[in-house]
Structure formats: C-alpha cells, structure tokens
C-alpha cells in the first residue's frame, strides 16, 4: 500500500468516525465486539462499510428535515404522522422497496418526487430513490470482504447523481410555480441545514471513489456538465 493511499484511508475513516456521536464524558469507551468477518476484510472494505452506514444516517436526517418543511407529505403516503412515514423508510421491518412507489427505485423514484401526476408522498419518493441509488453505487451490498471489488467510476457517478438530485430538490417546480418540496428557506421552522447534509453525502462518495481508484490503480473519467440540464448517470 502506498503512503498516499494509507493517508487517504486514514483521513476518510477519521472523518467518518468524527461525524458519529461519541460516548458521554463519564461513560467508558468499549471496543466493538470481535467479528470473525474482520479477518477477511481489507482496510478499504471497512471504510466502505463506514461510508454506507454514515450515508444512510445522513439520509435519515434529511428525511426528517424534509418532513418538517413538508408536513402534508405523510398523508399523501397514507401515514398519519411523519414518524410512521420515517419508520416505513428506515424501520427494521421495512419492505425491500417502498410500497407507495410500486417498485420504482433509484433515479426513477427520485423523478417521481418531481412529477406533477404523482399522488404519493414526495419526501418518501426522494429519500427512497437516494437510498437505493446509494446501495446501487456500492454494488447492492453493505458488507464487503477481500473478494469484493468496488467500481470507482460508479461511485463517482453516484456523487454526481446526488448533486443532480439536490439541484432538483431546490429548483424543480410545479406548473403553478411552486416548489414540489420545500427545503432551504429563510421562513418556516425546523432545522433547515440542507446544504450541509448535501455536501457531506456528495463528499463521502467522492472520497470513496478516490480511495477505490488509488487502491486498484484505476482512473476515474471526470465529466463536465451543467447540473441544471443533466440526467442521472446509470450506475
């Protein structure tokens, strides 16, 4: 492993761990229980797993913020409160695909959030699309071992797709000129720090793409395009 790659891995892992909530000042620090699976993991595998876990945590925060700004969306999905809608998206017994989307996922689900004819919960469509797109970027897995091979180009496209999705969140409007989903605003209540979450989600995927590229000696093909006119990359 080169010194450059080792430093990059340490920086990414440190950033991920720093973002997670630490124990209280007076609580003892406990190491994770030993898992025999760690024997078959590389350092890149471990960082990838941390990346996915942290990204899902950011998406959960994003969903909660969007429901605060768009309180009528749970009812469109036939849920009484945003807590029940959140459980459908992130609960331990959640279905493989969100029931309101009728099998749509990734970019197709995100597009439904900004479709005038869509009658369902637009927050759920956006978040479920982002969640399944994230998993697609990592080959449909959340655990990795020495035999697994991640594609840095796919992860790079994932970061660009997230940029497009957040641009649509802030700009796409219905025929009457109203935003389909409210996010950043000087008005309203709740935690409105959407840009910070967007930046974290995009940066994590870009960092991971570079880690994989460096570890596999593969080149990432950069693209230059206008986010406003871009379509989602297939991943």
Throw out a few tags for this protein:
235 residues, 8 helices, 0% strand, globular, 53% helix, mainly alpha
Spell out the blueprint of helices and strands.
Elements: H1 3-19, H2 43-69, H3 73-76, H4 82-90, H5 106-113, H6 122-137, H7 152-171, H8 194-216
Helix pairs in contact: 1-2, 1-8, 2-6, 2-8, 5-6, 6-7, 7-8
* DSSP, total strands: 0
Figure out the total of helices: 8
Our count of domains comes out at 1
**Span between termini:** 28 Å
What integer value in Å does the Rg equal?
19 Å
The H-and-E topology, N to C, reads as HHHHHHHH
How many strands, what sense, and barrel or not for the largest sheet?
Answer: none
Summarize the amount of helix as a percent range: 40-55%
- Runs with pLDDT <50, length 5+? none
Instruction: Work out the strand percent.
Output: under 5%
- The coarse silhouette is globular
Mean pLDDT metric: 83
The helix-and-strand class reads: mainly alpha
Please provide a written account of the structure.
The protein has 235 residues and is mostly helical. It has one domain (3-13, 41-229). The protein is built from 8 helices and no strands. The chain has helices at 3-19, 43-69, 73-76, 82-90, 106-113, 122-137, 152-171, 194-216. Helix 2 (43-69) runs antiparallel to helix 6 and helix 2 packs antiparallel against helix 8 (194-216). It is globular.
């Amino acid at each position: 492993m080169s010194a450059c790659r080792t430093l990059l891995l340490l920086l990414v892992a440190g950033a991920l761990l720093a973002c997670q909530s630490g124990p209280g000042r007076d609580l003892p620090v406990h190491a994770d229980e030993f898992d025999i699976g760690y024997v078959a993991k590389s350092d890149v595998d471990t960082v990838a797993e941390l990346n996915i876990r942290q990204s899902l945590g950011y998406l959960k925060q994003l969903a909660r913020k969007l429901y605060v700004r768009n309180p009528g969306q749970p009812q469109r999905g036939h849920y009484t409160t945003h807590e029940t809608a959140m459980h459908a998206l992130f609960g331990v017994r959640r279905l493989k695909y969100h029931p309101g989307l009728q099998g749509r996922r990734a970019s197709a689900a995100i597009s439904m959030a900004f479709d005038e004819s869509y009658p369902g919960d637009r927050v759920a469509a956006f978040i479920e699309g982002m969640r399944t797109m994230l998993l697609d970027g990592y080959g449909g897995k959340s655990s990795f071992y020495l035999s697994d091979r991640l594609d840095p180009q796919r992860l790079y496209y994932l970061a660009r797709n997230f940029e497009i999705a957040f641009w649509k969140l802030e700009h796409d409007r219905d025929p009457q000129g109203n935003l389909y989903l409210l996010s950043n605003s000087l008005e309203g209540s709740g935690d409105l720090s959407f840009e910070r979450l967007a930046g974290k989600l995009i940066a994590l995927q870009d960092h991971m793409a570079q880690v994989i590229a460096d570890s596999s000696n593969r080149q990432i093909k950069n693209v230059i395009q206008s986010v406003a006119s871009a379509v989602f990359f297939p991943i």
